[in-house]
Design a protein that fits this description.
The chain is an alpha/beta fold. The chain has 21 helices and 44 strands. A hairpin with a 5-residue loop joins strand 20 and strand 21 (543-544). Helix 4 packs parallel to helix 8 and helix 18 runs parallel beside helix 19 (597-609). The longest helix is centred in the first third of the chain and has 32 residues, at 275-306. The protein is globular. The termini are far apart. Keywords: Hydrolase, Signal. Residues 1-20 form the signal peptide. It comes from Aquirufa regiilacus.
Length: 886
């Protein structure tokens, strides 16, 4: 037996030596990206080419989403989940393992979940209500037309009754009757942007049976899959018109203790007119939310875990409580969709972005996902990032970085670029593209500079993932108020993160107070009824979560409708002396039509307990309970604070134009402080004054990692030097040359965009500005930072033959190493522009590059893409250059 054991050990190590698979060490701190597969027309050569490029550029992983294909390549299309598709998927995993890249995949193609194997019985459904008025003794024959009625409610002068759908007819009494007929219909919605073989109906997200049938198609693939396949994904809920499932009435009665079918007259109204009618509607919405959780989201997460993978879910867009839905999966994912006009000098924003139609991204929306993660102990919070930041071919990295910083401030620590399209190496530029993206694939105009952004993200996310968020305050998210708002025929309340969020977030009491707290420097997490019920009060009159997070105060912003369970929980906490406080007013109404008189009385008694806990402004309360306030918020510096064993850690970003430099104080920095520039790696240790303030230089657009460290020994506060500016004045004419040598060199007296010359307005590529300049010997020590006025869009700086690196983000500046500058100097500024002018020229020449199926290619306003009418996009460098001493 011992000999056989030795043989087993020998064979084991032979297997390892022969290349047996071991877990791949992929990174979650590096950025990942949506990897669109047009037509699934991938080849082994193309897969290797793409993945090697992504790995070299500093990506941590890719998320596969098959979509519609490119015209002319039909013979290369692979049928989704067919044998050839599975073979290529297996090859992806092998190559990703070799390159230390992680792989996630959508559980389907395009979005939402659905496909060819979804039957009509498992597809998304809606109800339609028919109203008929019967004269005395008139008969009603079922079904109406060619559809079968699901439920019929009869309302008469002296009687109300429910008759079953299988009854063939009904005859009215002598006083007549009104008949309400609810008919089940399929929505008919097909998967959007589906790949070949993935076309079909969208599933019923309110039916566990539908999901169980749907998931079987993926079991053979997943059983054979291996590391580095990590997560299975569900995209944002974009199921249009779905408001019904066969279990609706049964579930409704279980949750609300009355029969919704007896209130079809309420659902038939174009507008709810009374509190009771709104309460019935709210009960209906709450039931849909519960079905989405118990019939889809929880089974989705549980099954994925059972299969050995991680669940990633975008809850937004659904008619459910987003906090609960985000919390139900391993990685809750939010999104940053569209352009935001950051108040940063020189920040480029696409003027064609329609903020009225699509909304402006809001950090409060991001915090719904991160709050859910903080309360439940999830390590990762992901975000679909830079979707529709601008039209294709226009977006610069200077536009991307503030978005990344905003996402970090919102609590995200696992960023996904949206996106990176698979494009075969043999397809000429612009290659294959997905319309709704900022392009992060090798065809992108900023590809050469992208590793710098990716490294920046890696540094930041390492800190953000390693430490738990340090929030002191909980703010109740009043979902019931949303469910009671503006109800009527066919209404649902999908909570998307675009323009719709004005109604349920921005223009609400919750939106006002959450922004107020943010602006005052308080770090807040949002909480739902369900997550609140899981809190554990401590003897110190704080709350602890199951994950160990601790909170000092609970604020309830002007909630109108509250459940009995939540009211009694608040009353219990108030009696225990817990700091529960109501803003503007106490709750006004019970939330459900189904409460008994006794339950309504209990609700009123609970409210009496809360009377002394109303405040008009919470600041005094927060000060009384010593809730941490960050004074840097007064200077419009954005932040997220984290806890670590060594003390507080911060990510801070200047996303406004109010602050540039000065004395600041961070509430939890009390001994020493260390500042790390995650863009350059430079570390500084400023001295804290007696009042705990320190000098901070943070220009608009810049960001820092800040750490609490032990007090510095023998530290002597130094005087803050005044800022010294030294103009960089050319001593020779400026020579502008183009590496491709297809354009003539230009000579200029001052820095100007090369697009000022009509001969270079169609050019996309690099141009190098070169000239000499002189410095006095006393100026050299003061010339520590190079500042460039305007760059379109990034530049590599070479000084006296030395490559000093790239400038690609705002502010446009670069630290000059000591010993580089002399009295006589030569500078080369190698600039790369965005590709807008090149695509403009192609469209003016009517070159056919937009040859995709389905939606083909659209612009930022979802109209057919046409760059031929674009104005010329400035390219190169313009304005003054100068040095500063800090």
């Amino acid at each position: 037996m011992r000999r056989f054991a030795y043989l087993f050990i020998i064979f084991f190590f032979i297997g390892k030596a022969a290349g047996a698979q071991t877990p791949a060490a992929f990174s979650t701190s590096k950025p990942w990206a949506y990897w669109w597969w047009p037509g699934s027309a991938v080849t082994e050569k193309g897969i290797t080419h793409n993945l090697e490029a992504f790995a070299k550029a500093g990506f941590g992983g890719l998320h596969i989403i098959p979509i519609y294909g490119a015209k002319g390549y039909e013979s290369s299309f692979l049928t989704y989940l067919g044998p050839a598709w599975k073979q290529k998927f297996s090859f992806v995993l092998k190559e990703a393992h070799r390159l230390h890249l992680g792989i996630d995949m959508t559980l389907g193609t395009g979005w939402p979940l659905g496909g060819a194997h979804v039957s009509a019985s498992d597809a998304a459904k809606r109800y339609q209500l028919e109203t008929l008025t019967l004269s005395p003794n008139q008969s009603f024959q079922m079904p109406i037309g060619d559809v079968q009625a699901v439920s019929v409610f009869v309302e008469g002068n002296f009687e109300q009754e429910l008759i079953q759908a299988h009854v063939s007819h009904y005859t009215a009494g002598p006083k007549g009757a009104t008949i309400y007929v609810l008919v089940e219909q399929g929505t008919g919605q097909q998967v959007k942007r589906a790949a070949p073989g993935g076309e079909g109906l969208v599933i019923d997200h309110f039916s566990k049976t539908a999901f169980e049938h749907y998931r079987t198609e993926f079991v053979p693939l997943l059983k054979q899959a291996q590391t580095p396949l990590r997560a299975l994904y569900n995209d944002s809920y974009e199921v249009y018109g779905a408001n019904y499932t066969p279990k609706l009435f049964e579930t409704f009665e279980q949750l609300n203790h009355y029969d919704l079918r007896k209130h079809l007259d309420v659902l038939a109204k174009p507008k709810a007119e009374t509190e009771d009618e709104n309460a019935i509607w709210a009960d209906y919405h709450r039931t849909l939310s519960s079905l989405l959780m118990t019939e889809f989201t929880q089974p989705f997460a549980a099954w994925i875990k059972q299969m050995g993978f991680v669940s990633r879910n975008q809850a937004h867009g659904s008619p459910g409580n987003l906090l609960d839905l985000y919390a139900a999966v391993d990685i809750p994912e939010t999104e940053f969709f569209g352009s935001k006009p950051f108040d940063i000098p020189g920040y480029p924003m696409d003027p064609d972005y329609d903020s009225v139609r699509f909304g402006i991204p809001d950090v409060r929306n991001l915090k719904l996902a991160s709050s859910a993660a903080n309360l439940t102990g999830k390590k990762l919070v992901s975000s679909e990032t830079t979707t529709w930041l601008g039209d294709h071919f226009k977006v610069s990295l200077a536009q991307v970085k503030p978005v990344v910083d905003q996402v970090f401030i919102g609590g995200v620590n696992h960023l996904f670029f949206h996106g990176a399209t698979y494009s075969p190496p043999e397809v000429a530029w612009p290659g294959w593209l997905f319309y709704a993206s900022t392009n992060f694939n090798p065809q992108s105009h900023f590809w050469e500079a992208l590793p710098s952004l990716n490294q920046y993200i890696d540094v930041c996310q390492k800190m953000l993932q390693a430490n738990r968020t340090d929030s002191d305050v909980l703010m109740y998210f009043p979902m019931e108020d949303i469910w009671h708002d503006r109800n009527g025929l066919g209404k649902t309340h999908p909570l998307d993160l675009h323009a719709n969020s004005r109604d349920w977030m921005k223009n609400t009491s919750f939106g006002h107070w959450s922004e107020h707290m943010q602006n005052k420097g308080y770090q807040v997490d949002y909480i739902s009824d369900q997550l609140m019920a899981e809190l554990q009060p401590t003897s110190n009159r704080t709350w602890k979560t199951k994950s160990g997070a601790e909170y000092k105060v609970l604020l309830i912003p002007a909630a109108h409708y509250v459940s009995l369970a939540t009211m009694e929980l608040w009353a219990k906490w108030v009696k225990q002396g817990m700091p529960v406080y109501f803003l503007e007013h106490l709750p006004l109404q019970v939330n459900s039509f189904g409460l008994t008189s006794d339950e309504k009385n209990r609700w009123a008694v609970a409210k009496e307990t809360l009377l002394m806990h109303w405040v008009s402004d919470p600041i005094n309360v927060l000060e009384r309970y010593r809730v941490t306030r960050e004074p840097i918020a007064d200077q419009r510096i954005s932040f997220i604070r984290k806890k670590s064993a060594a003390g507080a850690q911060y990510f801070i970003a200047n996303l406004s134009n109010k602050f540039s430099d000065g004395l600041v104080r961070l509430a939890k920095i009390n001994a020493g402080v260390e500042l790390e520039d995650p863009l350059t790696g430079e570390i500084r240790k400023p001295i804290l004054r007696k009042d705990k303030q320190f000098y901070l230089q943070l220009a608009p657009g810049q960001s820092l990692l800040v750490r609490s460290i032990p007090v510095l020994k023998k530290a002597i506060p130094a005087e803050i030097p005044s800022k010294v500016f030294t103009p960089l004045v050319p001593s020779t004419q400026i020579q502008l040359t183009f590496p491709q040598r297809i354009l003539p060199a230009q000579t200029m007296e001052s820095m100007q965009f090369w697009t000022e010359d009509s001969t270079t307005q169609d050019y996309w590529g690099k141009g190098t500005y070169a000239f000499d300049f002189d410095l006095l010997s006393e100026q050299i020590p003061q010339a520590k930072v190079l500042h460039v006025d305007q760059i379109r869009d990034w530049v590599r700086v070479k000084m006296n033959g030395k490559d000093l690196g790239l400038i690609w983000s705002l502010p446009y500046q670069l630290t000059i190493p000591s010993g580089v500058l002399q009295e006589k100097n030569h500078i080369e500024l190698e600039v790369m522009n965005v590709s807008a002018n090149r695509i403009r020229q192609l469209d003016r020449a009517k070159f056919n590059w937009k040859n995709f199926y389905e939606i083909n290619f659209v612009n930022i306003q979802y109209k057919p893409f046409d760059a031929s009418t674009w104005a010329v996009t400035p390219s190169g460098i313009s304005g003054e250059l100068y040095f500063s001493n800090r």
